[in-house]
């Protein structure tokens, strides 16, 4: 299994906390954007590690992980939950027995590509989404599902700054090929695209990629 993560603050944009984290012991990955992104990811990985042994057998595992992280967030975020600009966007995925289970909220999308580089599935939030802010009401806005992985499938979690990149075949082909210098090639590619259209390709963005 190959993994890759990257966080880019954006071209000339105000400071935005973009964060990605992977468990050191299990295939658990989280991305988040917002003031308390790191706190949320830390809690997801901690709770995910605790749930991993029985993850696929426990129907509520994904929700329990989100609740743990959202509860920790609620102790920090003090603004009114009804405010649309309060809280963070986040997503996490857990790979167990060739099944990828994921949960996202806000401006984080999940992508599944097959071994031929064809998009098999995408989970994206509609415009006007809610964010994770410590309130129980946030749970109504979760996208949570799972998909079976075969061969050399690829899965991604990405904040919406990466959305226009996923429209480019040459972007996903980098991960399909997964060369040793992937990081160098990806950064060079993004630099070119950002110079062409900073408003589309130069936004703050975070990504986690996993290839079987």
Question: Can you give keywords for this protein?
Answer:
212 residues; globular; 10 strands; 27% helix; 5-stranded antiparallel beta sheet; 5 helices
Provide an overview of this structure.
This protein has 212 residues and is of the alpha+beta class. Helices cover 27% and strands 30% of the residues. It is built from five helices and ten strands; from the N terminus they run E-E-E-H-H-E-E-E-E-E-E-H-H-H-E. The strands form two sheets. It has a five-stranded antiparallel beta sheet with strand order 1-10-9-6-7, with no helix packed on it. A five-stranded antiparallel beta sheet has the order 2-3-4-5-8, covered by helices on one side. The longest helix has 15 residues. The mean pLDDT is 89.
Alpha-carbon distance between the termini? 4 Å
Order of helices and strands: EEEHHEEEEEEHHHE
**For the report, how would you describe the main beta sheet?**
5 strands, antiparallel
Q: Determine the structural class based on helices, strands and strand pairing.
A: alpha+beta
Write down the overall geometry: globular
Quickly count the helices.
5
Strand order of the largest sheet: 1-10-9-6-7
Q: What is the count of β-strands?
A: 10
The pLDDT mean sits at 89
Strand content: 25-35%
Radius of gyration: 16 Å
């Amino acid at each position: 299994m190959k993994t890759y993560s990257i966080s880019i603050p954006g071209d000339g944009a105000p400071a935005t906390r973009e964060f990605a984290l992977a468990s050191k012991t299990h295939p658990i990955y989280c991305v988040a954007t917002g003031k308390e992104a790191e706190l949320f990811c830390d809690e997801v990985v901690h709770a995910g590690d605790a749930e991993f042994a029985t993850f696929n057998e426990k129907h509520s595992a994904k929700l329990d992980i989100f609740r743990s992280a959202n509860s920790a967030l609620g102790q920090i975020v003090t603004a009114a939950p009804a405010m649309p600009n309060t809280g963070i966007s986040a997503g996490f995925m857990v790979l167990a027995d060739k099944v990828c289970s994921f949960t996202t909220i806000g401006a984080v999308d999940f992508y599944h590509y097959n071994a031929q580089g064809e998009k098999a599935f995408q989970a994206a939030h509609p415009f006007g989404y809610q964010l994770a802010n410590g309130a129980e009401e946030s749970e109504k806005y979760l996208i949570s599902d799972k998909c079976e992985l075969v061969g050399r499938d690829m899965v991604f979690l990405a904040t919406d700054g990466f959305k226009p990149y996923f429209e480019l075949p040459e972007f996903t082909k980098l991960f399909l090929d997964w060369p040793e210098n992937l990081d160098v090639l990806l950064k060079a590619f993004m630099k070119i695209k950002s110079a062409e259209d900073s408003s589309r390709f130069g936004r703050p963005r975070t990504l986690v990629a996993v290839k079987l």
